[in-house]
Design goal:
single chain; globular; 152 residues; 42% strand
Amino acid sequence: MEENQSMISVNDINALKKEGKTRQEIFTTIEDEKTLLNLENVVDFKLNDCKGEKIIVKDVLVKKLTKKLDEPEVDENGEVVKEYSHKFITILVDDEGNSYVTGSASFTISLMNVLQKLQDVKQLMENGEFILEICEKQAKNSQFKSLSFKLI
């Protein structure tokens, strides 16, 4: 008769802090760590469901995840053309405390460009002057549309 044995491994909580294969960079205006952790786990709306809406942005959280590919992509000459994959997550928080999330790389990259170019963007957010209208734009040479925004 076979005996089922349960294997239980008990580890110190600090073992969770080990390095993984994915590098994570976070860019944010949010200073409270508990708020950051909550936003990573619970959001109110998907930005894809908010097309046409204007959002008065008070805070931004951008996560860039970079992972080395198991097998790099190479061209016909054997030259490496892509060694890493990148994923982006953007969370916006409005003036009423509602949060909005998207995994759209084009949205995130466009937002990062705007944030880099604007002078004192944190002051604009604090004053309720950083307003985005969520929209779609036609991708070049494609039938697909991508999530985008207009500054208001």
